[in-house]
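TonB-dependent receptor: structure tokens wanted.
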Amino acid sequence: MAAAACGIPQVAFAMDEQDDEKTIIITGTRADRSLDEEPYPVEVVTLEDLQRELPRTVPEALRSLPGVLVQKTASGHGSPYIRGFTGNRTLLVVDGIRYNNATYRDGANEYFAQVDQFTLAQIELVSGPASALYGSEAVGGTIVLTTRPSAMLEKDGDFFEGEQFLRWSSGDGSLTSRTGLGFGEGGTWGFRGGFTARDYNDIRAAELGRLPYTGFTEKAFDGRFDIALSPGWTATLAHQSLWQDDVPRTHSTVYAVPFEGTVVGDDLVREKDHRRSLTYAKLRGGTDSRWVDTLDLTLSFQRRSEIEDRTRNDGRSIEQGFDSAIWALSGVATADLGSVSMTYGLDASHETIDSEREDFNPATGEVRTRLQGPVGDDADYEQVGTFVRADFSLSEQVLIEAGMRFSHVATDIGTFAEPVTGEARSLSGSWSDLSGSFRGQYTAREHRVWAAYSRSFRAPNVADISRFGASRSSEIEVASLGLEPEKFDTFELAYRYETEMLELGASAHTTALIDYIETVPTGRMREGLVEVAKKNAASGRISGLELFGRAALAANFSLEGNLSWLRGRLTSPTADGPVREPISRIQPLTANLALAWERGEHWLRADMQWADKADELSSGDLLDRERIPPEGTPGYVLLGLRGGTQIAEGLELNLALENLLDEAWRPHGSGNNEPGRHVTAGLHLTF
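Answer:
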């Protein structure tokens, strides 16, 4: 039971499985649970899906899930919009550790594309708010990544194994190589690690031809050591690092190629280097205590750095960046108390951020060191929270789930530019929140109905308060003072029909946006751009409908698909009074359909992705002329053929013929078009 990474996902609840090896265990609700028992709407992309579907990045592995739009400002970036939210209103979690940091913008960002998918055993998408479990930012959805463990529990005696994976695509002339190895003693200890290198060349788009200045390089390595300490207890020590070099933001440069009326930027150079790493130690096990059946303790350290080089058309250049370091500690316990099962815990993190910026004017030879980089300098950001979730089985048919979390967030920004005078300023602030969720589920034979209410929130982060720099194509953002947390009230009603041969489902959801932090003009111009700042000045609502289904057909065939509809409106202040308009970059009506055949080690699939024209544009979208066409992003139909086979023992070949109609297309809000008709091939060797 699995989701198809770039095809059609398995719908959230698995069909009955008698084979334990096929039971999918999810962790996104902060406890190990079987997918078919979880009342949350969860989509799963498995290891097999990742190896077969050949996605370029983690965000692209989510491309065909219900309610997801993957925006890509640049070829090396990726920001999933989940039910209309992205950036710092969605949360990424790696092995139970928060991945987001306090530099995240409210709009699309690049950071979700900086996790090596070859380290992963599974991707889970928990749609909708999860602040009751994770705190701030878990508003639109939470993406939960689980890394591949060592083979310690799968092997007997001493073992040594290796793998080599090659991915090639004609769409961008890219080549990816992944080399991995594992060794250890079965049941006692084990190690798994590897090295990944990627070389991306320029994209070749339909109608537009080669898109210059879109290639870059990337490399990553990882290692994970697992050891059995005693019966029922294991310890894990893991590390992963990734580097991206010279990732261009092509849309703002003179190298951009116009599409349906977009304009070409005037930067001569605009590119970023990224470095990220995660190191953690984890202890997991079970006890005989009434109140603690299982316990998970994690200590982690993350580091993220970014350097941007930007040269204007008059030769003026900017070099700016930041360095973020996060220490975090979490503990999660479960307890089965008969008719009630509980998950509870606490977590805390402390982040430090340093940023810098230098401007160079070739006309005068002057080098100017600014007070800050893209966010405030010498900043601290702390989060502490405790939560509890309880599942009540009132009968065989009725399940109630309730959750609550108390969160405290504090920041101390040492230096940032005061928005009016430009003088050095410091600021301290703190916020507390009580988030909650309630779900009721009724099951009668093949039918399942549930209703849910959730209150989620997002505290202002360092980027909200102290950001300085280019925003949309014609805007520059300055610091924002006096911000308070946003709050979100979400209601969801869903139905699912499940038999061994057929699954059908529908989910309707609506979210009220309260004290929404919106970027609004200040009335000033700065450096020839419209100056904007953030305020708790907006309110609105996002509503959506998701339909999905899967049918097992004769002769090893299956048919599955989904459809997503969203509508979002935001009321914001202007000089002429409040204006109600579409929420920026709202996902257009989107549908996915796939017909698949599988027999033994052989599989084939024909798939289609359809997106309507995205012409529900906000005033900000209309100003974003380098990325969004003036009449909206055109709709598209993408057809693909995929298949794979085991050509020898330990050697698997997967092949995809993508964009067969050679459509000229880009996801709504993206900075580049995607490849035209192209071939992607993957070769996987295990030994």
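Residues 74 and 223 are 29 Å apart (CA to CA). Residues 47-53 form the longest helix (7 residues).

Cheers.
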